[in-house]
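User: These chains co-purify. Model them together.
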Amino acid sequence: QVTLRESGPALVKPTQTLTLTCTFSGFSLSTSGMCVSWIRQPPGKALEWLARIDWDDDKYYSTSLKTRLTISKDTSKNQVVLTMTNMDPVDTATYYCARSNRGDGLDYWGQGTLVTVSS
Amino acid sequence: DIQMTQSPSSLSASVGDRVTITCRASQSISSYLNWYQQKPGKAPKLLIYAASSLQSGVPSRFSGSGSGTDFTLTISSLQPEDFATYYCQQSYHPQLTFGGGTKVEIK
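Assistant: Joint model of the two components:
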């Protein structure tokens, strides 16, 4: 069965770099069409898509955040890593990773990890 | 970026009511439109993909329609477990975007 799990620090200081890892099972990111996205949700607010990496290593980023984001994958470890630089309190959110198949919906999600940005 | 606009942002309804939520894209997205349900403290759940296809395991009271720029999610008879926030999302362009959400509350 497909599962995804996010991991990373619960608290980061302003200006620091956040590194989040999505560890998944039940599918391979080397399979044609498979994609993993990162999405975040500030407390009480809407979902915001951040980045996506595809089976062929194509990468896509939110226009508003692309200068701060880097997404990468380690197919052998079944992991996708997202880094976000220069963290600010407005980046406080629950961060999710999710799977999709090309243009289909995000059909499996991790449980999310809350990241708080505070000094 | 493709902007997704949902309406209304919230609504109050009773059990058994028919509920309709709309989503408009800033440009044509063909049928690359997905709907999600999110309950407090939980990850979103995919309900409808490709505008009108029901995700496996989702009750048939949920349906989706539309193409191009205008889309609709309908709940034919609202059940107690359907009180949640609903989001649309386009997957036409790989820079995915979500709508602002519609909170369905108990009247």
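The two ends of chain A are 40 Å apart (CA to CA).
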